[in-house]
Design a protein that fits this description.
Layout: H1 2-5, E1 9-12, E2 16-19, E3 23-32, H2 33-41, H3 67-99, H4 103-106, E4 114-122, H5 124-136
């Protein structure tokens, strides 16, 4: 670590090394990929509330889920989610800068700070298992009685 970050470094967030006073990391909450997969299957609607959360398209209502269709929709939903996630983080951190929420901490940094942004995900293993089950298993989709 010393050859890359020098003698004065620390670990920020989970695993990111940074030069003290010269770098900072914006942290973003985790995106939920398992929920994203549900949005892809349910046409962008939340299955609990029925609210339209993501871009609207027809839900998959067939008894058996087609892997290629689900994967294509999931890719589209992830593209929407990534754009929404980054735009939201940019707004949050812009407002931090605009209203100087962290002015005391920033007073301890050099004038020109190198900033990075941490983006995290949750539910990756759930999505991997779900897509594998859709592709390789035989069985019907689970829908609420109102949707049949």
């Amino acid at each position: 670590m010393r050859p890359q970050y020098g003698d004065d470094y620390a670990i920020a967030c989970c695993v990111s090394a940074m030069r003290i006073g010269k770098q900072m990391q914006f942290f973003g909450a985790r995106v939920n990929l398992a929920k994203t997969l549900l949005y892809a299957i349910n046409g962008g609607k939340d299955e609990n509330s029925g609210d339209q959360i993501a871009p609207q398209f027809p839900p998959i209502t067939t008894e058996y889920l087609d892997y290629d269709e689900v994967r294509a929709r999931f890719q589209e939903m992830m593209a929407w989610l990534a754009k929404t996630y980054i735009n939201t983080l940019n707004v949050i951190h812009y407002m931090h800068d605009k209203y100087c929420y962290e002015r005391l901490e920033m007073a301890l940094h050099d004038r020109d700070v190198y900033r990075t942004m941490a983006c995290k995900i949750a539910g990756l293993s759930v999505v991997a298992d779900s897509l594998s089950a859709i592709k390789h298993a035989s069985g019907g989709s689970c829908q609420s009685p109102n949707e049949r």
